Amino acid sequence: MSGVRRFSAVAVLGIALALATGCTTTVPMQPAADSNSPACAEVMVRLPDSVDSQSRRWTDAQATAAWGDPSSVLMTCGVIPPGPSTLPCQTVDGVDWIIDDSEAPRYRVTTFGRTPAVEVYLDNEVVSSATVLERLSGAVAQIPSEGTGCLERAEAGS
């Protein structure tokens, strides 16, 4: 009889876990070319549990992260660093970000002057890009700056 009770308890626990996790599906993503970089591992362990009231979700690719349901923020570490660009560049907590608003209100922001680079794709109708970058910059700062940030680029162009 105790075996039946044990089985029942395990079955009930399994059903409860399935129901609890059934609402939050894994976000399908693709790993970047340099996702296995130790620098990306340093970033990943420092990511926040939430950004702009959006909870972090599981992803199925190395060095990726997602927040919101549906996902309003997607992050990929290990992308190829961007070269010189005419896109706007903003420094947030010591991290330089190139801002591509060509798909507004969805923005693609990519670190500048860090290898590997980090790319964040966000829905500005759901989250504030400034808040997202403030929350992620501390983790991203684990990737050393190469000293070729926004200010150096702007001064070189003057």
Largest sheet: 8 strands, antiparallel
With helices defined by DSSP (H or I, 4 residues minimum), what is the helix count? 4
The overall average pLDDT, rounded, is: 85
Residues in β-strands, percent = 25-35%
Overall 3D shape: globular
Brief account:
The chain has helices at residues 2-22, 38-44, 129-140, 150-157, and strands spanning 50-51, 54-57, 64-67, 73-79, 89-92, 95-103, 106-111, 117-123.
Describe this structure in words.
With 158 residues, the chain is α+β, with helices and mostly antiparallel strands. The chain has one domain (27-157). It is built from four helices and eight strands. It has helices spanning 2-22, 38-44, 129-140, 150-157, and strands at 50-51, 54-57, 64-67, 73-79, 89-92, 95-103, 106-111, 117-123. Strands 1-2-3-4-8-7-6-5 form an eight-stranded antiparallel beta sheet. It is globular and about 40 Å long.
